[in-house]
Amino acid sequence: MTTTKRTNRKTKGKPRKAAKRKVKHVSIFDKILRAMPVTEAQVQKGLTWGLVGVFVLGAFSVAHYSGINERIKTELASMVGNAGFEVKRVEVSGVNRIDELKVYEIALAQKDRSMMLVDIDQVRADLIANGWIKEARISRRLPDTLIVEISEREPVAVWQRNGKLSLIDKTGFPLEDISREEIPDLPVLVGKKANARVPQLTRLLDVAPALKPMVTGASWIGNRRWDLEFDSGETLALPEGEETAAAALLNFARMDGVNRLLGRGVVHFDLRDAERAYLRMPKKPSAEKPES
């Protein structure tokens, strides 16, 4: 009988190799995503919508350059016009001096009457091309009305040069040519580029408010200075320079207030010399020779 001896020694096996730990590499993009206060799903959603936007923009650009947009716009405007949204009425306000029919003609001169295709900016530009119109506001009122609000220029004087007469506003802007028979009760400014000096002349006359209503005309002399004409027939020659002329006019107004210089038969006052004033009286009629 064979006896088997038991031993406490363990059976030696092949030693196990230690398992290698896999190192996960994190990209810079992942680090940026983790640092952002948004989830990865939100970022993916944003990228998706961004791609959709790029596609739509590209499609729109293709349609625009191929003329599809304009055709769609024209067809849509035609449908709108056929539905009754077409310019049929024009309401005009603020017109006093210009022909109101002219405003209607300009407002209705659009090639397409559809409310959608009316070029508001072009209508405004065409209206302002009229010298009398200072500003124009155009708006639509559905279904079929254009609202035109006009701001007119105010004539303040008549400008005379080279035998030509024109109404001008306070800035010197020419409004309309007129004939001698059409001259209104406004001061007449004489001289080349005298209209450009209207603001300066206004400041000058404001120095002597008592004399201002009596001034019926002014001549711009040698592109340097003013001669003023009064309703009583006198002419006042002022010196060069805006400040010097204002001081001379103020002094003349004071003397007229004390001594009543105007309306006393003097033809011409000359204040160009700062030291003294010169007067010119009317010529005396020559005595008739007695018959021999």
UniProtKB/TrEMBL annotation:
Subcellular location, record wording: Membrane
Signal peptide: none
Alphabetical GO biological process terms: cell septum assembly
Transmembrane regions: 46-65
Keyword Cell cycle: yes
Pfam families: FtsQ_DivIB_C, POTRA_1
Keywords: Cell cycle, Cell division, Cell inner membrane, Cell membrane, Membrane, Transmembrane, Transmembrane helix
GO cellular component: membrane
Domain POTRA residues, every copy: 85-153
UniProt main location, coarse: membrane
Stated name of the protein: Cell division protein FtsQ
